[in-house]
Structure formats: C-alpha cells, structure tokens
Amino acid sequence: MPEIPDVRFSTTDATVSVTLAKGGVNWVVVQTKWGPYYDVSKIITSWPEFKKTFGGLHETIPDVLQCKIALEGGSKLRVCKIGHKDTGTLSAVKATQVGKIENSANVELFSFVAKYPGAAYNDLIINTSLASNGDAGSFDLSIGLYPTDDEAIVETYNNLSIELDNLTTFLSDVANKSKLVSPVYKTLAPADIATFTPEVTTLTFEDGTNGVTIVDADYVEGLQAFNVVDDKIALVAIPSKDSNEVNLGIKAYVELRKDCHGVVWLGDSDDETDILDARDTLGADTRFLYMIGGKETDYSPYTNPTTKMIEYSPVAGVLAAQASKSLTPWISFVGTTKGKRNVFGVVNNFGTPAKAAALSMLNNRQIN
Predict the structure, then answer these.
(1) What is the pTM of this model?
(2) Which of 121, 171, 198, 230 is in Cβ range 3.0-4.6 Å of 208 for a Cys bridge?
C-alpha cells in the first residue's frame, strides 16, 4: 500500500487592524457656562455629555442651544470653549476656596482651586467627612458643583489618608481625575503635627469670573484650537455668529487647511441683494465654504416661545445626507440619525413662486 504523507498545518494570523481617522465631526467655536478652554481633544456625542462637560442652556449664551439641537439631531461635536484674551492671556479668573481645611490643631492641611476659570465655579462646595471605612486616620472627600438650573456634578474620594511618605501625593486621585478642582498641597512639618486627619467641614468658593466680554475676534482666534486635530470629514462652524469678521475668519482658516469645510451665514434679509452683497464682501469664491442666507424660527426653552436662529443644524443634516450617499453613513456629519424637531418656519422664505427669481439668483451664486 502506498504510504500516506504526514501533512502538518501551521496557521498564522496575518490580519492587520486598520485604524481610520474619525469622520463626520462638527468643529464648533462657542461660549459655554463652564468647562475647559480651547481643549478640542474630546468628541461630544450627546446632550447629557455636553451638559456635564460644558454646562447647560443659558438665555445669554445662544451658542449652547445650537449645540443642543445639533447633538439631539445626531451630530458629533468637537467643542472649542472660548474666552476673551488680553495680550494673549485669558481674562477669566478661577474661583478660590473660602476658608481652610484644618486638623484639630488648626493646621491647614491642603486646599483647592477651581480647575478652570469661570463664574460658574463659584457654586462649588467641598466637604470633608469621616472615612467610610471607619479608619480614624482617614477621611472622605466630596467635591460638588451645584448650579441653580443644571444637574449637580458630584465627585467623591473615599478613605484618603495623609502619611509621612505621601505628603505631596495623597491627593493624586483628585489631581488626575477631578473635572472640577485642582489640589494645592501645603508644607507640613511632621514633627509639629499630631494628626494629619482634617476636621469635618464644608467650604464654598468665590471670585471666579468669566472675564471681559467676548468679541468676534475671540471666536476667530478659537479656530486655531483645531490645529491639533485631523478628522476625516470636518465641518467648521461658529454657530451663533454671522458677522463679516467671523465669516472672513472661517474662510481664511479652511482655505489655509484645505482638509475641512466651513459654514458661513450671510444674514437673514428678505432682500436677496443684501445677501448677495454680503457674499461679495466675503469674496467667497472657494470650494471650502458652504454659504447660507437665512435663519429659522425654533422653539425656545426660555421666556419667549420661539427664537430666531442661524440654520446650523439643518446645514449639518443636509451635508450628512450628502456624505452618507457619496461615502458611508458612519462618517456623515450626524451619523445615521438625521432630522430636526421644533422648527416653526423660516425667517426669510425664498421658496414661494413670487420669490422664484430671487431664489434662482441665490442658487446661481452658491447660496443656500
């Protein structure tokens, strides 16, 4: 009989993981109630996530309502929170702790300062309490932000202890994890201190400010924060502004990068010549801009039932549909979720038969 050959198989996994750049992200420059300034490293995907990071709605900050509507429509946002700068220095001020965290001998052990500048951090409250594990040499720490019109943010750190070998590291968890405060260590003399355990206490914060009033130039400067990111598809917007200074800033930025597109608004006049004049002032002959002439009437969560808003979210939705059709849904500007709710109408309507000639004129100049 013929011999059957001894065949042995050696299997090697030769698959390669491919990492794609994140796509379909809206880059927005806005004011918010709190949060980090000029930090665009995080992609926000939901309104609750935005509220926790940057705070909720406020009648004097229309930017946030635009972000809320965009997120609820499925958009993903990189958010650049801005402030006013004086000669390159942020004018907003951090809130500081009122009172001291001391031991039974009235020795100050440590303190805190707000992690970021802003008046919202005046609502911070610090609590030190007995350790939850019952250890007399340890303590619990609670750090809370309690704004009047938003959900509270509370951080807890249990069973902390100050030892001779950790005098400058015992609050390392707070330093690394807290979104609200930064710890300040005190110089402690072990020979002079009978106990390192703080007394039970509650402390507040004060003197945080939002700084000088923000101007259009601050919004334009905020665009530079996106220099460090490179998403596959990016739409750049300053969603609450339609000034020529802001529009020129967006145009210059996207033309320089050539890997993203900007959205600019040319006013909401019922006279198409005003919108065309705004376009001519912008000198907008570039393939990197989407030009919009108009506003919409939306539901308002504030005193008035409606508010006039720049059409930021509908633009993102239209571009999402375009990206989904020509590319793939997962890199569209609003993912696979599209739509806009609570829109009552448009401020200037060029869609009627009487305005057909005006609409044609706008379309021929690439104005939506």
Answers:
(1) 0.78
(2) 121
